[in-house]
Structures are given as C-alpha cells and as structure tokens.
Design a protein that fits this description.
377 residues; alpha/beta; Rossmann fold; 2 domains; eight-stranded mixed β-sheet; five-stranded parallel β-sheet; 17 helices; 13 strands; 19% strand
C-alpha cells in the first residue's frame, strides 16, 4: 500500500530541513515507506542499525558518513545510536545533505535529537493504517492498523502476529532502548492498562497492584507512550466555576493490540466483550486524531466533577473542535454535550457513531458516522 499523504509530508520536510525524522512504532511500515520515497533518487545509501555490519561501519561515524556521496542517506532504527545526532548536525552544516532517519521512539525519548538538530530536522509520525486507507472499519477495529496484522489472511493469523509482537516488544525492544524493566512486570502493567482502557489514570492503584511505587508506574506508562503504544490524553482546564478533573486518561493506541491483550480473537468475542463501548471509543479517538493530523499537545479531554464531559477536544489552527464518541444506534444530544459546547466555546461539536449516516442535530452539533471522518481545518 502506497501511503501518499506520508510520502508528500517527507517531501515537504525537505523543503525546510536537511533531516527528516520518520518516527513510529516498530513494524508500522517505516522502512517500506522510506524505500518508496527513496525510489525517486538515483543514488541512495541505507544503513540499518540492527544490522551488525552497518553498526560496525559506524564505529567512526563522522568518517563513514562524510565519505558517503549519495543523494539521500537513510538510517534505520536511529534509537539504537542516539549519539549520531551531533554528527548529523556537523555534516548537514558542512554541506547540503539529506538524511532520512527512522526511529521507533518519540522525540521525548530521543532527547539528543531535539537538542542537537534543532532547526535542521522536521519530524513526522507514521501511524498504523487508518480508516481512509482501508475503508473497512470493522476489520480495522478488530485487528488494528499494523500492516502485518491488518493484512493477515485470517483473524487467527492476525491474532498470533499481535501476540508475538507484544512479547517481542517487552523482551527485546524495551531493553534495546536502555530500560531495565522485567518483561513480566511490563506485561502485567500493560494488561491492567488494557482493562482500564479509556479510564482516568490512577498510578497509586496500579502501583499497589504491581507492588511498585506510583512514580515508577508513571515512568513505565511514559515509556509506553514514548514508544507509541499508549496515549496519555491530558485534561483541559477552562476558566469556569466548575470543579474539573485534573488527572489524564490512558488509552492503548492500537485497537488490535488492545484486543490481543484482552484475549479477543474475532468479531464474536469483540461483540460480547463487556466494555465494548470503551474499545470503540479508543478506536474512534485514534481515527479522529489521525484524520486531523493532530499533535499530542493539541488533544485533550474535558470533564467536571459534576459529570459534564467531552471525550476529545482538539485545539488547532485557532479552532476548537469537540468530539463525543458513542457506540449507539441512535445518536442524540445529551445535556453534557450542550454544557461542553457552551463552556468550552466550541466552534463545532461532533457526535461520532459507528454507522454511515451523518446529519445535523442542532446548530454547531453534527452526528458523524465514523466512515465520514474528514478534516475540517
């Protein structure tokens, strides 16, 4: 599958910067996308930092990289050698060069890049497949958007792939990032987050269950967020007289991984899951964020102690859009939605539901079928 939007975004970054950082979870298709983009160049050099030969060649990175005369240099799995960032800064300042660096960790975990390549690098997050690319929302919801999971020949094969992915992530990927976390402890935390998917984060409660401090729980959750596994959705505070919720919510970002952790293998298992609505809320929330290409710092939820709430608030380009997500056959306005519309001064509020129909419910409120998602900025 050729992902045109992301290819265009890489090209756009090179109009401004010498280095493009393509970040995203492992196995999301970064290498495939890089090869698709690189096909337009005659002379491209690839370095894979999981390849022992390439790692050995970079024992003296300044010497090796300065002697590569290519139109584009691609460095895969950059999180394994964050010490390369200062070298890249020197090289791109020395003469015009294009580097495409691929990483399985966020900018927050790759701290050196933001410090040493400031003004020289543009970041792009490659997400799993979205509904505009697949057009099959039921299958996407069940399997998630990782290419090898979504494109598997059967639900059984997809589920097996996701189970293996989870094990490899905990046993290999987390240690490779330099974190010494027992895999069994990380799995237990991940399982607890799956069962509390979409709830207010309670680090103390999780810490008591795991036998560790809430500070350590928060650190582990931030590592999962930094590797694109979970989303920490922060609360929005409005200047009102209402007492507002101040703790974040935590979601597993990929619905397929959520279902694998919960033991849900097929549509039948999904539709009898007691927290079906929570699963669908997290899936729809991620689809909305992907559609609007919203950054984490542009996404919030809002809730008051008296019960008024809004599942997702996107503040971007001077606009405020609200999204209430409901797994329902009959979308209708609630008192909570009316309060959110007024208190948050929303430009528009969308009630996102699982069916195809979209229609106005009131002035500034629209019922929106998940398949009709499209950016309005």
């Amino acid at each position: 599958m050729k992902r045109a939007y992301f290819l265009d975004q890489i090209a756009f970054q090179y109009k401004i910067h010498s280095v493009c950082g393509l970040l995203g979870p492992r196995q999301v298709g970064k290498t495939t996308l890089a090869k698709q983009y690189a096909a337009q160049y005659q002379n491209v050099h690839f370095l894979d930092l999981e390849n022992p030969v390439d790692l050995a060649r970079l024992e003296n990175p300044m010497l090796t990289l300065s002697n590569i005369n290519s139109d584009l240099i691609v460095i895969d799995e950059i999180q394994r050698r964050p010490d390369l960032f200062p070298v890249l800064r020197v090289l791109v300042d020395e003469k015009p060069r294009k580097f495409l660096i691929l990483g399985s960790a966020s900018r927050d975990l790759l701290q050196q890049s933001s410090e040493t390549l400031a003004g020289r690098i543009g970041y792009l997050e490659l997400t799993p497949f979205d509904i505009s690319e697949t057009k099959e929302y039921d299958k996407l919801w069940l399997r998630g958007g990782f290419p090898l999971s979504y494109l598997a020949d059967s639900n059984k094969e997809s589920y097996a792939w996701r189970q293996a992915y989870i094990s490899t992530f905990m046993e290999r990927d987390i240690p490779n990032l330099g974190f010494n976390i027992p895999p069994t402890q990380m799995r237990r935390l991940w399982m607890m987050l799956a069962h509390n998917h979409g709830n207010i984060f309670n680090g103390s409660q999780l810490g008591t269950s795991l036998g560790i401090t809430h500070y350590l729980v928060r650190q582990y959750v931030e590592i999962l967020a930094g590797t694109f596994m979970v989303r920490i959705l922060n609360p929005w505070f409005e200047n009102t007289q209402k007492r507002q919720v101040k703790s974040p919510k935590v979601y597993l970002r990929d619905s397929g991984l959520l279902h694998a952790l919960l033991g849900i293998q097929d549509e039948e298992g999904l539709h009898v899951y007691p927290r079906l609505g929570a699963s669908w809320e997290g899936f729809a929330l991620e689809e909305i964020i992907k559609t609007y290409h919203a950054q984490p710092e542009e996404c919030f939820f809002w809730a008051t102690q008296s019960g008024a709430e809004l599942d997702l608030l996107i503040i971007k380009d001077g606009k405020r859009l609200g999204f209430e997500i409901k797994y329902t056959d009959s979308p209708k306005i609630t008192k909570s939605m009316s309060i959110a519309l007024e208190d948050l001064n929303l430009d528009h509020l969308y009630l996102v539901h699982p069916h195809k129909d979209s229609f106005p419910l009131a002035d500034k409120i629209t019922a929106l079928g998940i398949s009709d998602l499209k950016p309005t900025f």
